[in-house]
Specification:
heterodimer, A: alpha/beta, six-stranded mixed β-sheet, 8 helices, B: mainly alpha, ABC transporter involved in vitamin B12 uptake, BtuC, 15 helices, disordered N terminus
Amino acid sequence: MIEPAIRFDNLGHAYRPGRWVFRHCSAQLERGRVLALLGPNGRGKTTLLRLLLGAMKASEGSLVVQGRTAFVPQLFQVGFDYSVLDMVLMGRARHIGLLSQPSARDEAAALAALDRFGLADLARRPFHELSGGQRQMTIFARALVSDADILILDEPTSALDLKNQALVLDWIQRLAGSDGLTVLFSTHHPHHALEVADDALLMLGESDFAHGPASTVLTEDNLHALYGIPLRRLAFQHGGETMETVAAVWRNAASA
Amino acid sequence: MTMSPNCGTEALPTTPCCRGLARLRIGGSAAVPLLALTLLGCMLGSLCIGAYPVPLTDVGKILLGLSLPEPLRPAASWSDAEFAAVQVIRLPRILLAVLAGGGLGISGAALQGMMRNPLVGPDLMGISSGAACGGILAILFDWPSWGLLAAAFSGGFLALASAWMLARLSRGGGILPLILAGVVVAAFFTAVHGLIQYTADPENKLPTMVYWLIGSFAGATPAKVDILAPPVLIGGGMLLMLRWRINLLSLGDLDAASLGVRSAGLRWTIVALVSLIVAAQVAVSGIVGWVGLIVPHFARMLAGPDHRRLLPAAALTGAIFLLITDDIARTVVTQELPIGILTAGLGTPIFAFLFWRLQAKGWSHD
């Protein structure tokens, strides 16, 4: 039996005693698969990601993460005008001793990762000057250069235009497919989950979760329960292929 | 889904301010050697100038005489007064200013990087006030110089740790709670050392305390250099070794943790090193404000934001800045100006400018 990359049983977390963000959450993710994490604001998606990254200890339950993790945060700004190369170089932290500095080899690895994302020409540019999509790609390159096995992304498409959203989703599929990375991403877009995720975990309530193959779990009923507004799964033809998407019914949403 | 791996090349426009700073930047590899040469030149120049000017050639010969063994020493072409001015009065003072400035510069750069915040410095975080509090307590009880150093270090560390913990209580995090926590802690320690001064003997202890607090290198001696050098060289050396790790800390805890960095231990190590350096500086020369806050900004303009280059550049810039300021303090007017007053006079408008510039840049990260 293949050992899953991530496995948690009866996981729960409370920032204050008795005030549970969520509890009794169980799921597993096999190597090389993509899991989408969905839930409304405040349901605990980011808390779960923090637990998986080891930034916090869970209040209850067991959690096993097999392999190195890399994190891609939401579109973010860094406090200092680091160059794109400096940003990617930081991915080598696990390979560089506490009191050591990055070597020429580390720099070459960072440049190679940037090249893969088509950003090698921008290596000396300030990270702040990049477009949103370029910044996300830089952070992907940083994750790649860290030799991570598991990629954890916090709403990676938020604040991106449609083209860059598609680019990010495409890279999620590539990294899981050709690089064999295990990917877990949180999102507010069920159609993104349907498009690229193998599995989905829906945080329906404090102790209410739906977990399984994305196409099975992302039902109209579950999505309605998740967001409190009607959502429809729609099939359409594209390039001779039948595809599916999810559309929200916005009309009268305020009174839903 | 298939797409080109090359993402769009559209980029955010840079602000005029950013472009201006980029023009000032010397370039990573050249900045540090150039600053080192500038510092060397400033040190030699500082040995020449003063109430009793000494020609550069004589300064060079005196220095060679001090550093070479007997048979190799140049023939003495200088007067006793010149020798005394260079060796007894100016050399310890210059070394003290260089060590203090270098220590404050590197401490400020490390703190700003670690806290992801360009508006913090040892003074704003209350370290100087805490160290001053420990120092005047040592003066009150007539403790020896090592006791003063230990008391100043304990006070500085306690102040910084308190400010940091207080800021952490704010659930929102961000720049404002951190600065306010520093202001609160600094105000508390200022009140405590105000109380200590109130109870001190006005004939004997109080003038010593007040003069020490203002900050000055006028009483520089080789013994003070001996007190300041080890904490600055050891603390600064360790900060230099950790300089790339400061880049990682500047990303924030979650991001750093995902890269395998144990932020908490690293942050406390840096806090301890900064406290050691600043407390030692306060112990030998009183409060020299603003240097640790503004110098890293100049260094960043010259060497860029990467802490691998920024930390040595900040140490050298701090040393140059404080040395030149001290030269002004001892030469411009007949009655020597306390350097703490000069740095505060220069620091406040520069800080106001930096605050305005960061606001204009839209500083928004937490």
